[in-house]
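Handoff note, outgoing to incoming analyst
You'll be picking up this chain. Sequence as last confirmed:
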Amino acid sequence: MKFAFFSLGLLSFSSVLTVASTVNQVAIAQCVMADVAIQVAVHGSEKPAQQTNDVEMVSDGPCTGNTSVSTSRQVHVGGTDEVRQTRRSRHQMSEDRNNRTGVNGPTVAVPVEVQVDVDNAAYRLR
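Most recent structure output, in case you need it:
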């Protein structure tokens, strides 16, 4: 019985050592560019909405620890006229020439685009 408790104690202690040894690791984030665009049109025009989202994400070299985030929403509700929604966004990351950590990595680009076009015939009845 004492041997079982001793074994259980050693197992618990070894798991604590494993966790403690991984905590000392240095974590350095890469550069991240995120662009979130939402375009919504609820209208009575019989033509589909013209929705454009022009996003450019440029990185000219390895980078560490920077972010560029843009969020936008365009919402049109009502009417029977044609709908045009246009958006332009540009992100640029430059190489970190003063990085003293010695750790660099690729820039992570996360573009998110949501376009919704709803034809609501009720607007044509008004």
